[in-house]
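Exercise 7.
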Amino acid sequence: MQSTIVMTGASRGIGRAAAERILSRSPNVHLLVVARGNSGPRLAAELGAGGHAVSYVAADLGSLSSVRSAIAEIGDRLEHGELPPLRGFVGNAGTQYTNALTEGPDGFESTFAVNVLANHLFIRLLQDRFTRPARIVITTSDTHFGDMKHNMGMVPGPVWHSPDVLARTGAFSKPGSTAAGRTAYSTSKLATIYLVHEYARRLPAGIDAIAYNPGFVPGTGLARKADPLSRFAMRRLLPALALTPLATTRTTAGRHLAGLALGTTQAPTGAYVDRNRVAHSSEESYNPQRERQLWETAERLTAI
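Solution. The predicted structure, written as tokens, is:
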């Protein structure tokens, strides 16, 4: 059966590997990639080589108005039969800054805007467009554990505040520092797990939501805004860890993400999937009060 999967973060790293895997394994899928600026035509052409069904929609995920415009375009194309039924959304895009002071056009801290609010807007505004059964997969990170075992001390653990505080710049100690930027990242990934739990409670039956942790994957481009030493380490030194159990290659992480998107990897709604198996996320990530509060704040900030 023909179906559409909408995907963010397909241009490089894990997302690119996952997109290629989805298309090679499921010729009935039309992959609709969300791309920034004028990169969409090239990305769609590259992924569509060989006859795969790929198209694009332009969006700046840091701008809620841009995200809304992209969703409206997707809705129009579905309504007019230009796309097959929508059965999947993969929120793989993520960003990390060298500070917690970067503000987007809507006045929100940019890490929170891209990693949390953009996904929420896609899911909520596409909710009534899904043909069930459908699956939503949001890429999270084991940095949300905040311990040496999961992040080797490279990223500070999350520091939770009221979502209204997290949505604004300066939420963390020494907000102009790299440590604050990384704390914003790990905290945003904790937030994605909270929202996946809430989606599992609130979305209609037949629309499953899953949090996917790829593990530590060097060389994905996530550190492209980091300082020169960190970028060098991520590009040249840390990829060697992929040869050990401490890290995952982009190809392997992409394969696992594709399996979740296509439903070939079994997981119940609300699950946290660590690489290719259902697992428990951190103890802190199970908190119904925070989950409800984050949902209500995300609804208000995105004006659902």
